[in-house]
Amino acid sequence: MPAASDRLEAVLERLRPIFDTVALDSYSRERDHLLLREQVTRLVDAGFASLRVPVERGGAGLSIPELARVLTELATADSNLPQIFRGHIAFVEDRLTASESPERDAWLDRFVDGEIVGNAWSEVGSATVGTSQTTVTHTDDGYIVNGSKYYTTGSIYADWTDVTATDSETGAPLTALVRIDQPGVTVRDDWNGFGQQLTGTGTIIFENARVEPNEVRLFESRFRYQTALYQLVLLTVLAGVASSIEADAATQIASRKRTYSHANADLVRHDAQILGVAGEISAVAFTADATVQHVAEVVQRAFETASERDSDEDRSANVAAEIASAQGQIVLSKLVPEVATRVFDALGASGVSRDVGLDRHWRNARTVVSHNPWIYKARIVGDWSVNGTSPEYVWNIGIAKTESAAASG
C-alpha cells in the first residue's frame, strides 16, 4: 500500500483523538440509545464536513481513497458514524462534480462552515418502483415540499436533507435540498432496525416545507457514480466492523484465565485452535480493508472522468465503479457477518454476556448488508462477467408497476 499523503496524515492526526474518545463508550451509547449528537458535532468542528472540498476552497482536499481510509478508522470506533455522514458525502460529491456556479460555490462554503446534509430518498407504502409520492410544488410564494420519507439516515443530525420528489406539475423526478430547522419539517427517531440503531434512519414528514428555487434539480443531473459511492461508504462500515471484531477478539482471548479440561493449553491465548479462529478473523479484517481501498481507487477514476460525462472514458469508469463496488459488497456481505459470529467460537458462553455486547457487531454488519441486497448484485456482476452487460447506475425500491395496476384495477 502506498504511503499515506501528508494531507491524509494531517487529517488523521486531527481526527484520531476524536475517534479514540468515540470508541470508549460506543457500546454503552447503543445500549442506552444515546444519539450521537455530541460526536457528530465534534467531528464537524474538526472539519469532517469538508474532507473532499479542495484545499483552495478551505477543505482538506482528500481523494476518495483517502476519504475511505478515514471512514474505515471512524467505523472501527463506531460503525454508526460513517453511515450517518453517507448522505452528506454523496451530496458533497454531487456539488464537486457540478459545473462552476455561484450556487456550487455557496455549497462548498457551507461544507467548510460545517453545515451537513442528511438523506431523504426512500419511502414506505404504495409508491411504485422508481417513483416518489413526495412532491415539489411551485406556488406564488416559491417551492414547497409535501410527503413522508423513511430510512432518512443522518438527517436527524443534519442542517439540510436531500429529498427525492416528483414535480407535481410535470411528474419529473427531482431532488430538493430542504432546511430541517423550519416549521414544515418533522424528524422522528423511530428507526426500529436491530442494528445501526443510532444512525437516525427514521421518518421525516414534510408539510409545505419551503425550498429555495435554486435547490430544486432534475434527478437525472446527479453525478453518475453515486450508487458506487453510497456502496463504498457501506463497505467502509463493514471494514470498520471487521477491524473492531479483530480488536475485541484479541482483547477477550488474551484476558481469559479460565480454560476447558479438553483444551490444548493452560491459557486460552496459547491454545492453537483458538489462535486459528483469531487468525481467521484477522484475515477477514485485512481482506475488508484491502477491498475498500481497491474499490475506492476505482471510484476515484469515475470522479476524474466526471467532467467528460457520457464520453467513452467516463462510461467505462462508471461501469468499473459500479461493478467493483458490487463485487466488494458480495464478498464482504458474507465474510464480515460470518466472523461476527465466529468470535463466539473462541470465547465460549462468557462471550455472549450483555456486559460485553459483542452481539452488536453481527447486528450492525447484518443491517448494513441488508442494504441493496447483494444477491441481486451477484446476478448483475455475473451478467457483466459473462455477457458484458452494463449495470444500472440507480437502484429503486417500491411496488412493481404490474402489482400497482392490478391493485387499482
Automatic annotation (TrEMBL):
It comes from the Bacteria. InterPro entries: Acyl-CoA_dehydrogenase (IPR050741), Acyl-CoA_DH_C (IPR013107), Acyl-CoA_Oxase/DH_mid-dom (IPR006091), Acyl-CoA_Oxase/DH_mid-dom_sf (IPR046373), AcylCo_DH-like_C (IPR036250), AcylCoA_DH/ox_N (IPR013786), AcylCoA_DH/ox_N_sf (IPR037069), AcylCoA_DH/oxidase_NM_dom_sf (IPR009100). Residues 124-208 form the Acyl-CoA oxidase/dehydrogenase middle domain. Residues 237-371 form the Acyl-CoA dehydrogenase C-terminal domain. Pfam families: Acyl-CoA_dh_2, Acyl-CoA_dh_M, Acyl-CoA_dh_N. Residues 30-115 form the Acyl-CoA dehydrogenase/oxidase N-terminal domain. Keywords: Flavoprotein, Oxidoreductase. Belongs to the HpaH/HsaA monooxygenase family. This is Acyl-CoA dehydrogenase family protein. It comes from Paramicrobacterium chengjingii.
